[in-house]
Design brief:
Layout: E1 16-22, E2 26-32, E3 39-46, H1 50-63, E4 66-73, H2 83-99, E5 103-107, H3 111-120, H4 126-153
Helix pairs in contact: 3-4
Length: 154
């Protein structure tokens, strides 16, 4: 398993970062704002088939001028990888091949838990919460990634 922690020098200028919270039924998406300071959620991609999924991602990458991607890497609390981690790594490899962009894997432990916790504090219906949780998880992954990158700049 390869977890990447990008160096601050590798950060491209004037392009956005897109975060992916990968799931078998839904993919949560978020992008940075134009200045790369905040994470903004995008509508959740409801997966249908590989072709449609990658077409949607291609359009999103183009629309938001995405220059790099960060994917949440689901590790166990002990830091071990599992079946879902292997699926994320395979998807990341395919993204790199198709879009020729850097794809970083970033520890996402607790992001879905945190997203559910935050949403449970709202009056949102259970059905609506299901729609938003993947988007919020992607936002949390992206914000954590940006915070980590910022901390590395010193």
């Amino acid at each position: 398993m390869e977890t990447t922690f990008p160096s601050p020098e590798a950060e491209p200028r004037h392009t956005r970062i897109m975060a992916i919270d990968f799931g078998s039924r839904r993919i949560g998406l978020a992008v940075t704002d134009e200045l790369g300071m905040t994470a903004q959620g995008l509508p959740t991609l409801h997966r249908s088939n590989k072709r449609n999924d990658f077409d949607h991602l291609r359009r999103t990458i183009k629309q938001y001028a995405v220059g790099e991607i960060v994917m949440g890497l689901p590790l166990s609390m002990s830091g071990n990888s599992g079946i879902q981690s292997d699926k994320v790594e395979a998807f990341a490899k395919e993204l790199r091949g198709r879009f020729k962009l850097p794809v970083h894997l970033f520890d996402e432990r607790l992001t879905s838990v945190e997203a559910n916790r935050l949403l449970s504090q709202t009056e949102m219906s259970g059905r609506r919460r299901t729609e938003v949780v993947d988007q919020l998880a992607a936002v949390l992954i992206l914000q954590a990634f940006m915070d980590f990158r910022h901390s590395q700049r010193g």
